Amino acid sequence: MKLTRTLAALAVLSIGALGNAAAADTEAGKAKAAPCAGCHGANGEGKGTNPAVAGVAEDRFVQAMKDYRSGKRPNAMMKGVAAKLDDADIANVAAYYASLKKK
After folding, report:
1. Mind listing the pLDDT tens digit for each residue in 67-97?
2. DSSP-derived secondary structure for 34-69
3. Please, which residues have CB within 8 angstroms of residue 91's CB and are 6 or more apart in sequence?
4. What is this structure's pTM?
5. 97 near 62, Cβ under 8 Å?
6. pLDDT given for residue 23 in this prediction
7. What pLDDT was estimated at residue 94?
8. Is residue 94 within 8 Å of residue 65, measured between CB atoms?
9. Closest CA relative to residue 51, chosen from 30, 77, 25, 21
10. Residue-wise burial string across 26-46, b where 16 or more C-beta atoms lie within 10 A, e elsewhere
11. Are 87 and 24 in contact (CB under 8 A)?
């Protein structure tokens, strides 16, 4: 009985933790993504040689931005953009772009 309650409590805590991890704010992300439109299009559809970011999976977007910020992924323009964003901003922008349909 005690083991059952412990497992139930762990399940509830796990669900709560997952809910918090997925609590990115797409509206905040949209606001932070405004400067991106110049290179990636107004709706993340891509522009010129710059890739589309609409529909990119959140985890993939987050990792790319962190790699740009650290310099692991070399691109001077993106490094400058990523350097202005904290982890919460990156998560919000990732959620925003993931919510858009690929063109």
Report:
1. 999 999 999 999 999 999 999 999 999 999 9
2. GGGHHHH-TTS--BTTBPP-TT--HHHHHHHHHHHH
3. 24, 29, 58, 62
4. 0.77
5. no
6. 77
7. 98
8. yes
9. 77
10. bebbbebbeebeebbbeebbb
11. no
